[in-house]
Design goal:
- The structure is a homodimer.
- By secondary structure, chain A is an all-alpha fold.
- Chain A has helices spanning about 15-35, 40-45, 50-55, 60-75, 90-105, 110-120, 125, 140-150, 160-175, 180-185, 195-210.
- In chain A, α2 (about 40-45) crosses α3 (about 50-55) and α5 runs antiparallel to α11 (about 195-210).
- Chain A starts with 13 loop residues before the first helix and ends with a helix.
- Chain A binds a DNA duplex through α3.
- Chains A, B: This is TetR/AcrR family transcriptional regulator.
- Chains A, B: Keywords: DNA-binding.
- Chains A, B: InterPro entries: Homeodomain-like_sf, HTH-type_TetR-like_transc_reg, HTH_TetR, NicS_C, Tet_transcr_reg_TetR-rel_C_sf.
- Chains A, B: Pfam families: TetR_C_29, TetR_N.
DNA sequence: GTTAATGTACGAACTAGTGAGTTCACGGTA
DNA sequence: TACCGTGAACTCACTAGTTCGTACATTAAC
């Protein structure tokens, strides 16, 4: 009778329902934290019911883990964007730093989830088979950049990829994760668009100056 | 009847009761977060009862704010320790960075409270009349160090005290606040004692290299 | 004896999770 | 093609257990 119209509004759609729940749950968990988030609230904002959350995910904790997995998997697209091979090591590094800077700024919910997960000592992340040990994809490119910079004698010999990654991350994460207390204490909004280019440039210089010092 | 013995176990002691509650509450809030913390649990770990928490602090939120105020006030001792005037700008800066590094490492509960407060968008900190606008005491010394370094032509002209403070803070805070997810993803414990001196030195070089580049 | 401090028991509201029944899509079958 | 069996997707109402906060009684101190 009814033609198979995949774009028509379907009342029963497994994937759509799951995706809907996940999206709403991401906002709720990022907003209120794991303990502060309410399953009833997530259900209310969904086009489906609470029973479906338990049907598809099992419980609050498993839903939260699914949210973490989806959020982390979104980062993996980052690696492909770095043009490692055709740039001078300094420029490649500056580009990687700027890319990380932009990515963090564009994904405040992800940063909040990471902060929340650290408050919980990564106990949920440890339960995820998908995520445990899944290294940041940006590391591969960074390793190659440092190798080339060292081989050319332009970077310090003791430069460690993970250390450099930590410097870049700490700067970008701090700017988002601690902006509220920083603003309350010092009266400066680290996310003020007028200061954005300043911070973006500063990060690049910070890393390059450290690697090329002496 | 009983002689006024201030050290004897007193059954009624306003200050002692308050201090006891505050200390227990600090651990509970830092451990579980604001929403995760339980008033009954705090009361149970105290030598007094839940009724006293409401008697002295009014409620869970006011208790949490009192905990924040106490934690922040503990930092104020930091400023006096920097020997700003008798050291070369580079050495004074290195000392300040190392001091911040040590202080953060020694006060993980404080870092957790700051993370938690940022998840809540500093809404509680904003309610505190004591804390709102109370700038980090380390800033004063830092400003003088940078002035001397610039005057001597050894530091870059555009060096801003708050920016430098942000660099130092982000490094130190990240090392503590994000250690769990960092460990889970990369398998490296940023708090491993064997790596402590490496990070401590690295922070000093990072800041100095940035300020003296070119 | 008056007031500050303390102990106990309780309640109203909330919260994660579930039991049980309903509707829909779809393929086989007479 | 009309019917039916089946399992997946879905709805609704309910509960057992928490959790913050408080009413009320009690005790120590001056």
């Amino acid at each position: 009778m009814a033609a198979p119209s995949p774009e028509a509004e379907r009342q029963r759609d497994k994937d759509r329902t799951r995706a809907d729940i996940l999206e709403v749950a991401t906002r709720e968990f990022a907003d209120k934290g794991y303990t502060g988030a309410r399953v009833d609230e997530i259900a209310a904002r969904t086009s489906t019911t609470k029973r479906m959350i338990y049907y598809y995910f099992g419980g609050k904790e498993q839903l939260y883990i699914a949210v973490l997995e989806r959020a982390y998997s979104a980062i993996r697209a980052l690696e492909q964007q770095v043009d490692v091979e055709h740039l001078a090591p300094e420029d490649a590094l500056r580009q990687l730093a700027a890319l990380t800077f932009d990515h963090h700024e564009a994904n405040p919910d992800f940063i909040r989830l990471v902060s929340i997960e650290n408050i919980h000592r990564a106990e949920h992340l440890a339960q995820s088979e998908v995520l445990a040990g899944l290294a940041d994809p940006a590391l591969g490119g960074l390793t190659r950049i440092l190798e080339r910079g060292r081989a050319a004698g332009r970077f310090r010999a003791d430069a460690d990829p993970l250390d450099v990654h930590m410097i870049i991350s700490s700067f970008c994460v701090f700017r988002l994760a601690n902006r509220y207390t920083f603003q309350a204490i010092f009266g400066r909004d680290m996310l003020d668009p007028a200061r954005r280019e300043h911070y973006r440039t500063m990060l690049g210089e910070l890393v390059i100056d450290y690697l090329t010092a002496r």
